[in-house]
Fold each of these.
Amino acid sequence: MSKDRTDIAGMADEYVLGLLEAAEARQVEAELDRDPDLKAAIAASRDRFLPLDDTADPAVVGDDLWSRIDAALPVQGAASAATRRPTANDNSPGGQRWRATALAALAAAVLLAVALSFNLMRAVEPLVVAVLVNEAGEIQATVEDFGNERAAVRLLADFTVPEDKTIEVWTLPSPERGPVSLGLIEDARSVRLEGHAASGSGLPLPRDSQLYELTLEPAGGSPTGRPTGVILAKGLARITR
Amino acid sequence: MVTGSAPDDLTTALAACAQGDRTALRSIFDREAGRLVTIAERIVRRRDLAEEVVQDSFIRIWTQAHQYRPDRGSARGWIYAIVRNRALNLLRDGRREYTVEDVEGLRERDQVDHVMAAWHRLDRTSRLHDCLGALDDTKRRGILMAYIGGYSHGEIAGRLRIPLGTTKSWIRRGLSALRECMA
């Protein structure tokens, strides 16, 4: 990691052993894709400790576990649109579904074009834009950060939020400062967040590769001021140019 | 490095998964699921949660198979890491704390036994066995408790009855000595 590259191997070991704090572990995961040294150190660490996993006696596993997995597997590659939005009259897996997908894609393209021209026409430009993806790598949302704790969050997938929960938007301005809340998304709809009163002291201007994420928190927001719930989506920002 | 039988089969199976071949995922399941359930159970301490972890992990193995690169460690290490991470995340979400509270007292001893049993069953011809054996007892125990049982620094400090700061630095030094020994 950028703060002390000398101990990448130590950090990799602690990550593999599960000894890092949740926020540190998330940061390691966010850095993985663009830090080949860190990635290699983690791979080496995993293989070093793997013999300990061979000491486990295999449990007897029923066929029902496989049935549950098999039933939940998405179609490889084609994943999102087709599986997430089956239409009510979807009775022929071939034609109808692909037609629905094509129409959905067309509608999405129109929406994006409208959103984009809206963006281009606006007087204020975001400083950075982050595309947030879920664990399966599917695009879930974008965050445009205008600095001064003003941000626009656009949801690009349906989120199911239980009644006693809310989606909270976080960013990680620096490892020292830790994750900072940018605000809550009520009703799982795209929102503009304007200056989040609670954080008071203000944030540094967003920088390239800054981490943004959405988590599921108790209604009213995280009780600790740090992310506590599951991560719905995360991604690294890019500077607009 | 020795990582069990025919690691190449798993590499091939992952590549087939990335192409959408469900029988390849099934072959990984048939070969590894039993051991993966045990590994998850050592961490989350409940069979039903362990199966949930393995179920989620196989879906992840399927959707992320295309990201695996053979030049970045063994396929087996990659698969096992997905399961360990899911199990550790479940712990961090706090589910072990309140779901197991009632049986914690009963099973705590079992759990410590699991950790030490793993050490005693570790392949004696492995480099890892030699190098862990060269550490002093506390450092070795700390590292094993973290890897096998998913214990945090705080939990290790409490169980070994040493201050948190000392625990952290001992484990860090233990890990460093281990890397040097295995290099």
Note: DSSP finds nine helices and no strands in chain B.
Amino acid sequence: MNYIGLGSKHKSRGVAANFIVKIVINNQELSVEAGSTVLEAARAHGIDIPHLCYHPALTPYGACRVCLVEVEKNGRKQITTSCTYPVGEGLVVRTNTEEVRAARKFTIGLLLSRAPEAETIKKLADEYGVEPGLERGEDADGCIRCGLCIRVCRELMGHEAIGFINRGAERIPETPFLEDNPDCVACGACAYLCPTGYIKVIDDTTRKISSWHKEEGLAECRECGRRFAPARLLHKVKENLRDLEISDILDLCPECRREKEIKTLNVVEDR
Amino acid sequence: MRGKSTTVQTISVAGGTCGMAAGAGEVWNKFARVLGENSPGIRLELTGCKGFCAMEPVVTIGDIFYCRVRPSDVEEILEKTVHNGELLERLLFQDDGKTCETRREIPFYQYQDRRVLSLTGEVDPVNLQDYLTRKGFESLKKALKMKGEDIIQEVKDSGLRGRGGGGFPTGRKWESCRNSQADSVRYIICNGDEGDPGCFQDRSLMEGNPYLVLEGLIIGGYAIGAEQGYIYVRSEYPLAVKNLEIALARIRAEGFLGRNILDSGFDFDIEIVRGAGAFVCGESSALMASIEGKIGEPRVKHIHATNRGLWDKPTVLNNVKTLASIPLIIGKGAAWFSSIGTENSKGTMIFSLTGNIKNTGLVEVPMGITLRDLIYKIGGGIPGGKKFKAIQTGGPSGGCLPESSLDLPVDYEALLEAGSMMGSGGMVVMDEDTCMVRVAQYFLNFTREESCGKCPPCSEGSLLMLKILDKFIAGNADEDDLDQLGAIGRMVAKTSLCGLGKSAPNPVLTTLRYFKDEYQSHIKGICPAGACPGLNQ
């Protein structure tokens, strides 16, 4: 079980990760960790590959098709997603050929037609000189179906409050029966990872996440009385961290928590 | 036991889903009612599909083959044919004015080599005794005395390749699973999620001879060292599910399945998993996700299922026809199996012949037969004196081949080279009245509806292509659209995640390759087939 804040990095590949293999990325010979993916290896060496559905804490998904690269193994070349392709001795990778860029341009265009207003997608589209693949107008809902929200909810929060419904172009992340799901504690991790801003969290006296038909009560800070976190989320965090004897700071809003920490430090220094 | 020479005559009614839809149930009921409880010397049997769809409901009495039988024919058949040995000419198959007195004379059967299908349509599908008297489970007995490696060697020697589409050598797949992750649990899965429009070979096999499929699955499990097998069948195949369920219960009771099979020390069981009707669940990784209880969507497969498949354990996934070939290979030997076929495609292949063709049905032919022989000798050609235009092979992921491809031998490589594929064995024949732009639209629309939506090239790319195809059909397209269509199709093939998306543009790309002139006519406002309303012919 993964606890909030203590989520262990998901190891999706069952290869022992203690040895090193040599691969070539863009004519550069690199020593990389066996068991990692091409994208992870490239990132570890500062080689930039654009990506949208990848997150280091989550299982690779391979859905957005933006991190496409050319891999060559045993003389066979193919265009594939670097976030899912495992490294292996002698693998040759090219991240920026004309063919790779053309393929990315195509998929970015398709994503742009889904989320024409999203800054991340617009930036990529500018970089690759892309027009929207399909003019959707008002039908563009702003979601690119990258599944980060669903994966973070399932893999790190341990909740599975949301999932994809429908298929094909009608696929969309949703709650069961399109209604408020009590399993969702409105933690907002989904919105935090959403690359397009499709999921919006609005905090007032309550927290509202309209994508999930959610309205959750916010707990008040013990010191200042400000509403700062969903009450049920806080309860869950306390449950999970009860062995750490820090529950007295969990009722405080981030600001009061900081002040309390400073006071504690001052007391220590005064001594 | 056939003909009048024996004391017991068997009246056999083809009762596959196809026959039932054509009224075989009513015919069988009428026979049962008229014959009553006591009818010495007559055995009434409801079999699986006999393959000749165009002639359903089919009734056979020994070698006599009656077509399109109605309940009103039943009394006369009993009186004249069964009791007096007279033929009813109106029910016999007529081929260009020639009457075929026996099944052997019917061209549809004459050129076939029914090996895997030899019992389908000949026996009561769930009658275990019928299967056993025809050497059923002899291959399993033989296999259980062999080592797993030796069985795999035999399958490798046979040259059997996956009959579900990919054509991967079955023996090699088994071997890599057996050798993967020592001491791990292993699984073997039979893929019965046949979903291509116009395809029904797997259904007919599961309905008509479930024991053969199960025997192949058990032998496969033993060879790779699995203790659990699965059959994934789509829920739209209720008769297949029912017959498999009955068959499983019966062989479990007789010790062919379960603990210590036939005292060999081998434990193996099989579970039926029913698919909920998503085409993409026929794709191996989506199928496994579905068995695991997850959403049936494909995963990226840089690691083979034989290494990490179902529940991350080494897994073999084989098509129904592949597994149904296994008892034959073990029973009759690799040499017998590989004695027919082409250099790289051995044995027979089962095809569903459908579309604008006289003899629609299920045929089993040696690999390497030409498309022309398949269409004209077995299929009887195009009805209504129309001209042949195209044949679509490999289902919605396959391609449309023109007249000039008709002398191609049917084998994996030849079809791939031509831009199509073997696929699961669908063959849709189209005549001159078919508009190829609309054909591309039909198949693309099918994959669009069945796309899981995980990756945009498939779900969005198919929408893009459909939009352009709509322009052609409405007569609003220009040369630029022609280039665009091909460019998008190639991109979708290149950037999609799974096999469904990668092959989705095939109907578009092959029609562009072989029927470009037809697209160009549409640009000029002409539909040569006269199928697009609003365009000239």
Note: Residues 435 and 529 of chain B are 5 Å apart (CA to CA).
Amino acid sequence: MGYELKMRVWRGDASGGSLGDYAVEVSEGEVVLDALHRLQATQTGDLAIRWNCKAGKCGSCSAEINGKPRLLCMTRLSDFDPAETITVTPMRAYPVIRDLVTDVSYNYEKARELPGVELGPRDADGKRRMMQVDVERGQEFRKCIECFLCQNTCHVTRDHEDNKPAFAGPRFFLRYAELDMHPLDTLDRRDTVRETAGLGLCNITKCCTEVCPEGIKITDNAIIPMKERVVDRKYDPLVWLGNKIGLRNKDNEGRAAT
Amino acid sequence: MTTGVDGPGRAQIEERTLRTDRWWLTPLATFIVFSGFVVFATVRAFMGRDYFAEPYLSPFYSPCLGDCVEGASDFGQPFSWWPLSAALIILIFPLGFRMTCYYYRKAYYRAFWLSPPACAVAEPHSAYSGETRFPLLVQNLHRYFWYAAIVVGLILTFDVVLAFRPMPDEYAVGDGETSGVHMGLGTLLMAVNVALIWLYTLSCHSCRHIVGGRLRHFSKHPVRYKLWTWVSKLNASHPRYAWYSLFSVAVVDFYIYLLATDVIDDLRFF
């Protein structure tokens, strides 16, 4: 049961651009990326789209559909009324390269700033051991496909370009949380996540969680726990006093002293 | 705005959002309801009267530590010199707990400060420093308000127990009703309210962190891990409990106000 889909697609580059109106034949069961591919094949041979797996696992085809940050390949046309015009634009937090393709280098720069895992010594038999319950805790965070939709939606940098140097963004708070909850990691990242990654800039308005195509509870399970860990480290006067007078030394939980 | 979605290098799109759904509805509803509650709570807190209808004490005035009416102060009156309403002595604790709550922060940053009004809708501010500076740095004290909220919860639970007290003679509406245990609609409302307040308090993100979330090794702390899993389940409904308990506090207070001003009589079950 095909029909003619009305689309508005942003075309242009850093020097300027606009929304163009198109009509394209689509079929039952198709997604927005299918419609864009048909548009590319039949009408706009030079339309630039970044895509790879078409299965919601590579995180390449991030864009904004009717103003909402989504994966082009995971947005079904059946979610829309056939009479509705679907508007597709590139992610609006990043410099546009061309059409629907943006320059997401910011995210790779932030990834490089993040201290990697620092494992402690191996057990006597040369192995490292983790209990299943500790392994399971980080599994949710490892579902991240790095589509950067959370990074794109976060108003801290989306609406304030000047915050980019000081703010790592939700995707990397997820990584900080994963490492800080890792039972074998020895590095204390609580100062880094506050000072270098700018965790304090986040005002937990949960847009990252709303747009995550993997359904990761970024705010509840990563950002807020990291904020609480920073409070342990920086803003809890009882912990500070306990550490100062030597009454408390469990706070590091296997982390190297800093 | 020149540094946000309209900034140089970004795709040139005039609209601050291209969202076609009713994204403004949730922040608008939040704004209206929260504003209504703030007005109601402020008026009631400053009134300094009609907060006690034996055996019911309004949650806005509990514990009543100021110069309260007879029978309302179950913990004495250490602040009897306080010239203003007794509610103002203790309301800082529940107010602080809710103001620094991770859910309420999300709700009022969106609805009142429009930062952002909704996801992928450009905010109107030209600068943004988040929670890195005073006064928003104070949000980091949420866990202290949580400790206070536990005490408040215990006191409100005690109030519910007291709400089962026999009614004094002048409130009797039938023969022999002043002896034994009493239960009225007020008791029921207070019990429901305290249940919702406990659900809200125990589903708090700071509670989740304190009971076990702060650990790196769940496997070494099985009891705390179990507590963490329970709190995590409650935590998923934290926003719902935040709303329900907000309404229930207001309903209980208003019911007691109506009783205290003789507008209605308590509906007695036994």
Note: Chain A has a mean pLDDT of 93.
